[in-house]
Structure formats: C-alpha cells, structure tokens
Design goal:
Distance between the termini: 32 Å
Oligomer: single chain
Largest sheet: 4 strands, antiparallel
Radius of gyration: 19 Å
Structural class: alpha+beta
Helix content: 25-40%
C-alpha cells in the first residue's frame, strides 16, 4: 500500500467528503484515493505524486517532448538506447526545458542526437515528475479526485453514478485546463 500521507487527498479529507465516521472502511477508502489519483493522472497526464517516471520514445526530434508533467528540473534525467550492435548507450548531458508544458529535452550544446539508423528499439528517458508537496496540487484536480473517490467508494459496480462522476471529473480537469496534451 502506498504512503497515503503523500497523496493529494488525505484519508481524513476523503472520509470527511464521504461522510464516513468509522475506521471500518479505511483500507477501502485508501485504495479508492489511489484509484482516484490514478484516474486523474491518466486523464490529464499530470503526475500528482512525485516519483520516478520512465517514458519510451521512438525517435529523437530537435526538441523531444515528454508527456509527464510537472517535471522536477532539479533531479537527474537519464536517456538510454541500444545501438544497432545491441550495446546499451547513455546520453548524460541532455538539456531539459520545463519552461512550458510539455517539457522538452535537447541535445547538449554543440552536439546532436544520435541518428535514427544508429538506434535499435525505443529510447528510454527516465526522470522525476510530480508535485513535491501534496499542497501544490491544484485544488481543481483535488476536487476531481474527490468526485472520482465518491464513485469508487459509493458505486463499486461502476454503474450510472460512476459514469456521471467520470463526466463531472472530466469537466473539472478541463475547466482547470489540465487535460492531457497530445504530442
């Protein structure tokens, strides 16, 4: 079970929202918190809890875009790929720009990305993404989490209430302009 204290919505906040006074359903509510966060992350592409993320890209571009957001620019970024001989190669000096969403990676100054014909398979980019502090998560995304939390807790079979909650959570994410960016 993940550390629920690191979730954007605490167990106490979730229980208050659900109007649950006993501790009998604590583990079920904790699971629903994680599911609600994962739903919001999946819909928006935003990482709400800081963690290491790995993205696979097919080829380098002049400014390769990363899907996850926000990205911690004070943490290491690693890029690796297999060359055509099957040898793992690492690019240690790539530059990361988090000036806007999506974040972009560039080759180091006065250098170039390896050409596509020199790369076998996907390029693997590993970095730290997510909000460092749950208090930094936008309130509208927390509201979307609470909306989905209600659905996961009250409508466990995924019926009409779940569909209505999903529609409402999508509207909240869109209103906050936090919808997934397609690259």
């Amino acid at each position: 079970m993940p550390d629920i204290s690191a979730e954007p919505v605490s167990l106490a906040d979730a229980k208050a929202h659900l109007r649950v006074n006993s501790s009998a359903d604590n583990s079920l509510i904790e699971e629903a918190i994680v599911s609600a966060r994962e739903w919001v992350e999946g819909f928006t592409g935003m990482i709400l809890v800081r963690r290491v993320v790995t993205e696979r890209i097919g080829a380098f571009a002049d400014h390769t875009k990363l899907r996850a957001w926000p990205i911690a620019d004070d943490q290491p970024l690693t890029i690796s790929y297999s060359d055509t001989a099957g040898v793992n190669q690492a690019i240690a000096d790539a530059q990361l720009s988090t000036a806007g969403r999506p974040a972009r990676i560039y080759p180091a100054a006065a250098s170039y990305w390896p050409p596509r014909h020199a790369i076998f398979g996907d390029i693997v980019v590993t970095f730290t993404a997510g909000f460092a502090d749950p208090a930094d998560v936008p309130m509208i995304l927390k509201r979307a989490m609470l909306t989905m939390l209600t659905a996961f807790y009250e409508d466990r079979e995924g019926g009409e209430m779940f569909a209505a909650s999903e529609k409402a959570a999508m509207a909240l994410c869109n209103r906050g302009n936090h919808r997934r960016r397609t690259l």
